[in-house]
């Protein structure tokens, strides 16, 4: 477990470092457009066709303005002040495709960009920016039947409170009276919460589009807070899974099964998560193999045949990462699982690191195979 915790700590470090794509010697194209994550009517931040981002902040009395990009906001781009007190600047290189957190540091104080929408990450609401991806159609909002993402509040005796979760139900769920569905319990990463997979990950749109194309058998997705954010950097080995495991297995799952039309057996229940949510998935599925039959780790570690030998055999193990993470480790782990007789699949997102484009693509690959007919 210590080795697994060290690996996840390294992934955290990756997640808080903002890495540009490989530097280009070509001239920056002046075809900048407002980011799709901007507040209504706001022109900045902007992105261009090469993946560069440009920022503009009105702060006439400020002495310094920096844009810190990535989960945790390390490093960033210094902005330059003009005669009117407007600060502007462009990233040093093109950014990876997809979604990125960022915030402003103005004279040492941390602020969100008033031009951008906010998303919960780094244990706070951060500004967000979207670099258009070449494959963005799979999570685009299209004219297809849409499912519903609804908030639920479920009782939690173990924490002496009501807790929140979001449940995705597929198109047509509310019109049907008898059909029952499999369920994926899908976890966010460190610094995030139960809003991440819908807001940053577009899990609902990914599912809507796959269902409309006939590529996936519909299932429910349940997203709840993984109780991760009290852990500080360097303290991962001290994280105790038991409190969240109790909330998930003993409280949330029975509530969902009682209030939604689920197929409430192991064969129709999966668990997956990104980053630290993958670590939680790893621990809980090993502790409770009688509860879940399908496991998914998205930039969240690996399974080995040795640790699975004494467990009920899962029907599917899916392990993914970005090509800028450690893809060989994922591929080698899946190869070892396959050699040991497990149904295991690896996926590598090309050109991405420990970020939401990796996890969007991972869900897109995972969903069609998750509950396919045996």
Automatic annotation (TrEMBL):
Q: What's one Pfam family here?
A: Esterase
Keyword Signal annotated: yes
Keyword tags: Signal
Q: Name one GO molecular function term.
A: hydrolase activity, acting on glycosyl bonds
Single Gene Ontology BP term? xylan catabolic process
Q: Does the keyword Metal-binding feature in the UniProt annotation? A: no
Entry's transmembrane regions: none
How far does the signal peptide extend, from start to end residue? 1-21
Q: Which domain of life is it from?
A: Bacteria
Q: What's this protein's name?
A: Endo-1,4-beta-xylanase Z
Which organism's genome codes for this protein? Algoriphagus machipongonensis
